[in-house]
Protein: fumarylacetoacetase
Organism: Nonomuraea wenchangensis
Amino acid sequence: MSWGIDNLPYGVFSLPGQEPRVGVRYGDKVLDLTAALHDEVFAAPSLNPFMARGRAAWRDTRALIQEKLTSDLSVVERHLIPLAQVELHMPVEVADYVDFYCSLEHASNVGRMFRPDAEPLMPNWRHLPVGYHGRSGTVVVSGTPVRRPQGQLGAGVFGPCRKLDVEAELGFVVGVPTEMGTPAGEFEDHVFGVTLVNDWSARDIQSWEYRPLGPFLAKSFATSVSPWVTPLEALPRIPGRAQDPEPLPYLRRKADWGLDIAVEILLNGEVVARPPYAEMYWTPDQMLAHLTVNGAALRTGDLFASGTISGPERGQRGSFIELTWNGTDPIKLGSGETRTFLEDGDTVTIRATAGDVTLGEVSGTVAQALDVTQGA
Ligand SMILES: O=C(O)/C=C/C(=O)CC(=O)CC(=O)O
Ligand SMILES: [Ca+2]
Ligand SMILES: [Mg+2]
C-alpha cells in the first residue's frame, strides 16, 4: 500500500469544530497521535514542540507508531481517521526561512537568461551553497490560493506580474536549535524531516529588482509547502554528486546525504517536468553547515529549501522560465494549448516519491491580481 508503514509522515489536521493537532498519515487515514500515544505534545497546532525533543525522541516515536500500527492495530484502529473527514493545516510554525540555489543546471540556466553577457555561474558558486533569506510569514500550506503579485516590472512600469513562475524544491525542517555563535553539529541531530516546497517566483519583478542584493519581492508573496513532513529516517540516502573543486573543510561531506527523490511538476493535472533530486550539486548537510558556519542561530521550525531542482535534460527543469527558455519556447500541453508563464486559474502541483515512500504533494491555484489602479 502507498503511505505504508515505512513512510508515516507527520502533519497537522483538524476535525470539524475541533482544534488542529498532530497526526501521522497511514494509507488514506490519519492516526490521531494525542489519542493513540497519550502524549500532549501532539495536541499542539504544529509539529514544533515535538520536533524540539530531538533525534532520540523522533526515532523512538516512529518505532512506537510502527509497533502500534502493526502488532497493536486493534487497539489504535479507532484513532485512525479517514482523510476525507479532516482538514490539513500548516504542519510547522516556520521560524526563519532560507532558500538555497543548489542545482548546477538551474543556476547555469538562470544565469544564461538573466546575465547573457556573463559567465552563467558566478565565481563563488562552486565554492559555497549560495542562498538568500526568504519570508516565513508568507509560507502557506498546499491548497492555499496564490494571488498574482503586482509590482515594479521595470523603470517606471507598474502592474500585475506577467511572468509568474514556480520553483520545485525540497524543504528541510529544523527541530533542534543551536546557540548563537556555535555552528550546527551533525545534520541528523538538527533536521527533523523534509517537505515539498513551491517557491512561487515573479520573474519580471525579479529581473528588475534583484541587483545587487538578490530576490526580494519577487519571491516573498507566497511559498507553498506540502502538509506532510517526511522524517529523514524514511528517506533512502545516496552519495552526493561529485564536486570540483573540493569544498573547504567545513563543507566536506561526512556522510551520504544525497537523496534519490523523483519529483514531478503538473500543470492543471498534466505532468510537464520530472526533476531528479539525485542530480543536486550541494547536499543538505552542506547547506546546514554553511547556514550556521558564521554563528547564526537555528531555531525550531526553521525551514531551509534546496533551491530549484533541475536536471540536465530539458524535461527535468524545475521552473517554467527554464522549461520555456524565458517564454521564448512555449511548452505544448495535451489539450493543444501552449504555455510560457502561468495564467490566472492555473493549478500547479509538485509531487515526489523516493522508491515506495511518497512525499505527497504541494498544490496551488493562481488567483487574479488586485486592481492595480493605485500604482498606475
Ligand atoms: O540567478 C539568479 O539571479 C537567481 C535565480 C533564482 O531564481 C534563485 C532562487 O530562487 C534559488 C533557487 O530556487 O534555486
Ligand atoms: Ca527558489
Ligand atoms: Mg517564495
Observations:
- The longest strand covers residues 357-367.
- The pocket of magnesium ion (ligand 3) is lined by residues 134, 199-200, 219, 223 (CB under 6 Å).
- The domain at 10-89 is CATH 2.30.30.230 (SH3 type barrels.).
